Design the sequence.
């Protein structure tokens, strides 16, 4: 018995649709974007010269657009590269969506509600120290106090968090680029682009208008191996031809569903849920005997109620020139060859 797709790839409406072009809706909101831009410039001026040092090199992986751009997978890739080069990295984050307010460690078993879903994923997937705090400099100092061997810090998000001094800025774009190029709320930009960054990385087409920083195309695909909350592993290809339910509570769930399709997995039911959804009221569309597939980010919350759900990691590939640039920048900051 076949099932029609539930919550399929809905046509984008609301602000995301407005942000795609300079239509009437964008121009009506444009005066508010001028106010937003003035506040953004005032804050940048206020913070000039006041950024605080973490005591070790800091790499910020962020974006200039609202919504998901794929920062966390890039953070995972950067940390994996640093480990391979002999560095001892740690990660800091604000911990968006958590119910706590303090500065704390995100451990592999930490509930997402206490540390945020992305830090929980990073702690589980990278194996390096992760700390969260409203002010990332507080997280960096707490992390170094607990783990003095850490010699480089990666900030997951925080391009606009100017209180933390940084040595490398990586700006991530999804395949929508800068949209209509307007600032919030008339467009998707948190700050004007182009801006000075160490490098931009993008999926799809290069961001426009282009900045002076080098831009590198990234390739994204799903891992061929899934894992669930019971510690089991399974080849993704094993689901081909089965009735599968897919769920995604990320900024762009349609991308996850499309990548499943590219691997020959056509879900019989799909649920596209709000980004950072807590899954408290989640209910399945198919019966519990059918495979349930989710993103790695969703698994840290979904496994509490459905440990049998299969999480499919996202794998990134960046050109060697990007890694060479990162290594060279860190070597210049430290005034010594990189370890390893």
Sequence:
């Amino acid at each position: 018995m076949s099932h029609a797709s539930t919550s399929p790839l809905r046509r984008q409406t609301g602000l995301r649709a407005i942000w795609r072009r300079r239509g009437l809706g964008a121009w009506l909101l444009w005066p508010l974007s001028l106010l937003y831009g003035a506040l953004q410039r005032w804050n940048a001026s206020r913070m000039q010269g006041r950024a605080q040092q973490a005591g070790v090199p800091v790499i910020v992986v962020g974006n200039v657009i609202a919504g998901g751009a794929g920062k966390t997978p890039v953070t995972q890739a950067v940390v994996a590269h640093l480990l391979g080069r002999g560095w001892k990295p740690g990660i800091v984050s604000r911990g968006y969506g958590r119910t706590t307010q303090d500065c704390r460690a995100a451990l592999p078993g930490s509930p997402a509600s206490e540390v945020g879903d992305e830090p929980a994923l990073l702690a589980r997937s990278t194996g390096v120290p992760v700390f969260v705090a409203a002010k990332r400099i507080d997280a960096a100092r707490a992390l170094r106090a607990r783990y003095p061997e850490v010699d480089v810090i990666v900030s997951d998000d925080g391009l606009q968090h100017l209180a933390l001094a940084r040595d490398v800025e990586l700006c991530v774009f999804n395949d929508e680029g800068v949209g209509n190029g307007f600032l919030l709320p008339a467009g998707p930009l948190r700050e004007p682009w182009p801006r000075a960054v160490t490098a931009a990385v993008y999926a799809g087409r290069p961001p426009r208008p282009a900045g002076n920083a080098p831009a590198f195309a990234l390739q994204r695909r799903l891992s061929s191996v899934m894992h669930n909350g019971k510690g089991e592993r399974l080849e993704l290809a094993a689901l081909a031809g089965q009735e599968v339910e897919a769920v995604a509570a990320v900024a762009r769930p349609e991308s996850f569903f499309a990548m499943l399709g590219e691997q020959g997995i056509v879900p019989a039911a799909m649920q596209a849920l709000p980004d950072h959804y807590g899954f408290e009221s989640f209910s399945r569309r198919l019966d519990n005997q059918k495979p349930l597939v989710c993103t790695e980010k969703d698994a840290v919350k979904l496994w509490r109620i459905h440990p049998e759900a299969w999480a499919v990691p996202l794998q990134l590939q960046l050109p060697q020139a990007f890694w060479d640039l990162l290594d060279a920048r860190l070597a210049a900051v430290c005034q010594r060859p990189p370890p390893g």
